[in-house]
Design brief:
By secondary structure, this protein is of the alpha/beta class. The chain has 16 helices and 15 strands. The strands form three sheets. A seven-stranded mixed sheet has the order 4-10-9-8-7-5-6, with helices on both faces. Strands 1-2-3-13 form a four-stranded mixed sheet. The radius of gyration is 22 Å and the shape is globular. The structure holds pyridoxal-5'-phosphate.
Length: 441
């Protein structure tokens, strides 16, 4: 146990996605992290049941990553990536391409999931324009989808509180598929639900409404994480792929959470054997040690855009920090750990025990659904009358006080531990949640 830290003045920082006033009255600060554990400001050890924010897949404080970042900072702190480059960004792109499904081997670097999403949407528009179908500007997302917080991402996203304050400024040509969660049909599914593949056929309806010639791309999270863990029904992604292919619509998988082992495979595309045209990623790509993201694009899409310009810049897009030296150092060291320690396979091997432990909560107080896949579980609670989210929020705080970090969205608790977790720690997470559910009203 480390000694309690003095709390700083908290008035100046406007915290993201946080109830600022409540938080500052009762703060929870993290001061250190190693392996599966955080240390809180009051000196307590907290078991990380959420990989930070779905991102520290290889566990905290990995020495190889720390060293790689430190070396790079001393050697080359920054290099622009417009009209100039540095060797590790090319190496990191090759290493990412190696993990992606065959054919998605052109890699565009960003700094976050939100930037990856906006980049992918722009690539889709640029692609259709480059091949002479510039009228394909419509983007299709899905209800309850989370694609970050850029204007593109919230437009295709389907989480109402993230959209309503900005509703007058969302992208104009967007439509949404229905989400796939229905407790009457798929409650307490273990792995992929049997029910719901037919909901992909709603895309046929949108095509009939708008005409395929106006639609550029469909974007979905293969497993929707941030909205509260929605697992794709069996056959659903396959149908989306078949329909998009039939009409020349690009399919984008937003794998900001799924990629890098979360589902027991390198990507959700590999896990479900469905290959999209574009994959967005961030989080686990660098083990979150340095902010980083990327977009993997089918070579033919890249070539179409690049070849459409006779000479000069082919795609007017990029970030000051695309392929930042510290990020690419972290990416290379992280991917090396994943490979050496076979962490994606480890996640797959642990998933049966994880599923078993999660579903033991089916009979716990307030629980209306338990769902899981790979090393992700969602525990949905009955909302308290007139106070949606309050019950899950209380359960979260109870768990934190008892030394386990979980997450909640609405009334769903989400569990997504680092892939290095041990079976005893899996049991501890779900036991602590049970205790919390027994303790709260
Ligand atoms: N897309 C998905 C599927 C996500 O889960 C997230 C974040 O959780 C994002 C995009 C946004 O990523 P960031 O917060 O790094 O911008």
């Amino acid at each position: 146990m480390s000694s309690p830290a003095t709390l700083p003045d908290m008035s100046h920082m406007w915290m993201p996605f946080t109830a600022n006033r409540q938080f500052k009255e009762q703060p929870r600060l993290l001061t250190q992290a190693k392996g599966m554990y955080y240390t809180s400001h009051d000196g307590r050890r907290i078991l990380d049941g959420t990989s930070g924010l779905w991102c520290v897949n290889a566990g905290h404080g990995r020495e190889e990553i720390v060293q790689a970042i430190a070396r790079q900072a001393a050697e080359l702190d920054y290099a622009p990536s417009f009209q100039i480059g540095h060797p590790d960004s090319f190496r990191a792109a090759s290493a990412v391409a190696e993990i992606m499904p065959a054919g998605l081997d052109r890699i565009f670097f960003t700094n976050s999931g939100s930037e990856s999403v906006d980049t992918a949407l722009k690539i889709a528009l640029a692609y259709h324009r480059a091949r002479g179908e510039g009228q394909r500007t419509r983007l299709i997302g899905r209800e309850r989808g989370y694609h970050g917080v850029g204007f593109g991402g919230i437009s295709v996203g389907g989480i109402s509180p993230n959209r309503k304050a900005f509703s007058g400024a969302l992208l104009p040509s967007v439509d949404h598929l229905p989400h796939t969660h229905d407790l009457a049909h798929n409650a307490n599914s273990r792995g992929q639900p049997e029910w719901g593949a037919h909901l992909a056929d709603e895309l046929e309806r949108l095509v009939a409404l708008h005409d395929a010639s106006t639609i550029a791309a469909v974007i979905v999270e293969p497993m929707a994480g941030s909205t509260g863990v929605l697992i794709p029904p069996k056959g659903y992604l396959e149908r989306l792929r078949a329909i998009t292919e039939k009409y020349g619509i690009l399919l984008i998988f937003d794998e900001v959470i799924c990629a890098y082992g979360r589902l027991g495979a390198p990507t959700a595309a590999a896990r479900f054997s469905v290959t999209p045209d574009i994959i967005t990623m961030a989080k686990g790509i660098s083990n979150a040690a340095v902010p980083a993201g990327a977009v993997a694009v089918k070579r033919a899409i890249h070539d179409t855009i690049v070849d459409a310009t006779a000479s000069g810049i082919e795609f007017f897009h990029g970030y000051t920090y695309s392929g930042h030296p510290l990020a690419t150092a972290a990416i290379l060291a992280t991917l090396d750990i994943y490979k050496r320690e076979q962490l994606f396979k480890r996640a797959a091997d642990l998933s049966a025990a994880f599923e078993q432990a999660a579903h033991q909560l089916e009979d716990a107080p307030h629980v209306v659904d338990v769902r899981n896949l790979g090393l992700v579980a969602g525990i949905e609670l009955q909302p308290r009358e007139g106070a949606p989210g309050a019950r899950a929020s209380e359960a979260f705080r109870h768990c934190f006080d008892k030394g386990v970090m979980v997450r909640y969205t609405g009334d769903t608790l989400a569990i997504s531990p680092p892939l290095i977790i041990e079976e005893g720690q899996i049991a501890e997470i779900f036991d602590t949640i049970r205790q919390a559910l027994l303790a709260i009203q």
